[in-house]
Fold each of these.
Amino acid sequence: MEQAGANQVEAVEQAACKPLASLRQELLDEMASLRHFSNRGLLALSLFLVVSTLAWRDFWFLPRPEKIVASLGAPPSPQTISIVLVLYTFSAIILSLSRLMAGLKHASSFCHVGYTGVFYLFYYFAQGLQDNYWAVFGAGFTVLSLESYRIWTWSQQQLAKKEQQLAYLDRTGRLPVKDDEDEDDDSY
Amino acid sequence: MFDKIAGRALVPVGVVVTGFLAVCFVLLYAGIKDIVIRDAAGQANNLAGIVLKSTRYAMMNSDRTLNNTIIKNISEQKGVEHVRIFNKKGIVAFSSRPNEVNRQVDKKAEGCVICHEKAVPVASVGAMQKARTFRNAAGTDVLAITAPIYNEPECYEAACHFHSASQQVLGTLDIGLSREATLGALNSIRMQMIFFSVLTLILTVAGVITLLKIIVLVPLQKLQRFTEKSEHNSNVTQPTDLPYELDKIAKSYYFIRTKLGEIDKSAL
């Protein structure tokens, strides 16, 4: 506790040593970075829509499934892929909700585009894409929408904090002392 | 919308419940569709077997009149779109449509290509490979089964010696059944699933809204009214029946307000 208190005081003293303009610019840069980060979920969602459009057009640029099956062997059956898809969707939603609840930063949107893309490909090779297209689309859209919401909410919370810090800095000429919650947020 | 508690709580719940329900129902429908189609193909295969057994005696006796009568009677059954028997060369020997008889069929045509894709034709295929679906000239969706007529000892040992023992397949039976009933059943299942998923969704969102209102929003409004009133009137009593967390805030606020009142009085 004493050590933590000493570190806090040291941090405040270091911040106090920095020129006001520099501190202000740092805060403004962090706010710009947060605004940029808040769009990450939407970018991933847009990329997912592009992948879904390719799948909708039956991956015309890929070799026919028969050729792939002849060289790589039989793919899993559509039923097996569907079971894995349900498990993936369930786990991804639970994970995203947990992160939303814990207020974690974690930028994991783009990997979900990869996962759903792989599901499209597996259904394509198993010749079950036509029947299961909307299932993968629904799964991807749900997970990525939730991730977008989580990232956007987290960014808005952080932006509100930074705006408060900026107002405090303009009023007093120094940064406010960080509480435990702020320390946690900065560690991610 | 996202500034209020209701908006913040409902958006994730709505997205998660709608999305997961949609995924589960689409997969469930795809699974049911697969089972129904396999079942229909299995039944069509059985029917093809029955037709072959029915025509066996007439074929053994080379009785064209009897064969034609059997095929005509079967094709009159509701749901049967066409019945035809091809010989080894791909010429229609018997058909429910008399104008097709003695016509050559392209081996690359759908239904024939499954066995004739390679130089040496495949002699046996699985139940699902025998089945094909298409829309006929009348606009009816058809499930057709192409069943090979195998050479059996009774065929090549018969006194006429017409077929040699080396011949594996003597011809094929092609029977087409209307998919109207199957597609109707699938459509009915789909509509019921959509109906139930919409009901589930409405119930879930309504449940969340109700709980949120009772547990969070109403007590928060009480607290908000209390703080607004006490700004102008220091004699306002603190609200009762608040949840533990909000009750602590109300007590703290009431305590601060009372102290401020006392300070104001003493200053006067």
Amino acid sequence: MTSLAETSFRNALLRADAPVPEGLTDGEGRPAGRRYDVYRNNVAVALREALETGFPAVAKLIGPENFARAAGMFLRAHPPASPLMMQYGAGFPEFLEQIEALRGIGYLGDVARMELALRQSYHAADAPGLDAARLAELDEAALMRARLVPSPALRLLRSPWPVLSIYRFSMEPGQPKPPARAEAVVITRPDFDPVPHLLPQGGAGFLAALIRGETFGAAVEAAGADFDLSATLSLLLQQSAFSDLLTD
Amino acid sequence: MFDTTSSLPPMPGVGYKPQHYSAIRDDPAPVGWLEVHAENYMGDGGRPLAQLRALSERFPISVHGVGLSIGGPDRLDPDHLARLKHLVGWLNPASFSEHLAWSTHDSAFLNDLLPLPYTPDTLARVCDHIDEVQEALGRRMLLENPSSYLAFAESKLDETGFLQEIARRTGCGLLLDVNNVFVSATNLGYSPQDYIAGFPMAAVGEIHLAGHDEDHDDFGAPLLIDSHGREVAEPVWALLDMVLDRAGPLPLLIEWDNDVPDWPVLAAEAERAARALTRVAA
């Protein structure tokens, strides 16, 4: 059912160095030549632009030429698995970490992970935020046994790098130089725009436990000794991090 | 088998871009309907779906797919067809259209509209795929003519005959992209007027108009690129008049997908489309 010309048309598309397939003409019998390269170029540009749109901070951090090279390697190794370009690039953070020439930029993978998380949050299902009054109604014992249901748009990222500070430094002019520290970032979407926040001390352990489905009490325990519960909880509730509260 | 009339109005429409949301909400004239790319509205929620819901309460919506790969030899992706069915189900758009092209090969989506040879084999393949889509969606679809930069030596049928036969066998309608006609005719050395004269206008439910760029092939011959990044070219407006003389008023879409301008520039293109429609309605 598939002709030879169709097969070779497809197989040469992602191989910039492959010769132009046989059986393709200019409509008047002459070989297609660079007319074929229009398609080859369209495919590479469309996929590269999708990555540029999805990872603007990575592009700023390594510069347009390095980004184009990394994107070109990625799109040839990992073309999209579905027509939903909003999902393209899920493997890009790991891929960047494997590129020898970028090994020196240790934080690059986590910045890419954060951009991916922001995009996933943007397209996540809608859910009204939990009314904080429902927590206040519980006595302490009931609160400790309760479980908070994360909103579909919630994302948590823990990095040994100052990932949010680097992201802001690259994207927003006038931001201070990133401090040398680990950062834990929560992404919430109170309305339609995902917003990243730094989590207070212990907040990441607390939130990770809640995301795993553990009780409020177990999450407080998981947060560790210096945990600032009230700062963490007021940030998360204000930002519609949870959609529901399950009590027994 | 299915409802055979498009319910898009014979007015200018535009390809919807989120940056124009407020402008369209406040003063859409002369735009009477909007077209969206199906794949951009297949997320779970958030602003894209909220905007589309709000717009669909005020405007007829055309859903234009770019990811089904109807022209390819692989079977249609059942997951993608299911997503499309879901979108068309809740939105109930005025029209659904796709391309005579392929984009997926061995599960890799290449994000471009790629060409196929026109042979009895590919004709049967495309018709099977369209039957499957119309069956799944429970509605008639429109199929768009492609822009071509090259031809397959093995092609046995001309493009208008190929499209006419698809429409006859499947009952689908056609989306006539007049810029694509001009681009393909220039690139492959045939007359765009002859193409229009031979096109099965009775099946046409929508017209596309867009801008193109100019380049050259290895022999110095003109090679037009379907870039959707500027105003519609003068020869394309002239071809549009010829189409409307033959077909009467139709829904006319202005597509502008790259270097998207501010709303007034796009609205001016839609104004010109409105004048072309007024001429044939008078």
